[in-house]
Specification:
Blueprint lengths: L10 E2 L8 H11 L3 E2 L7 H20 L17
Parallel strand pairs: 1-2
Amino acid sequence: MVNRLKVTHEVVVTGGGAKNPALVEALSNKLGHTTSVPDEPLLTGAVGAALLGKDIAQKAAKKGLPPETKKRSLGEIEIL
């Protein structure tokens, strides 16, 4: 997967993998770019979801409507 990425800027590693210094270093080496880890890498996904939710709620409120939700499903994926 790393080989398919076209990285042009600094890479921020988040989630559980960011707690593994060897993984962060390996990504940096493989990508040929600097990597950084936020102070709380396990919280970044939750913060992003909260910000998206806030944006959706604000847009709906401006229209005088309740926030819309979409049915989502995860199909089968093959990783390896």
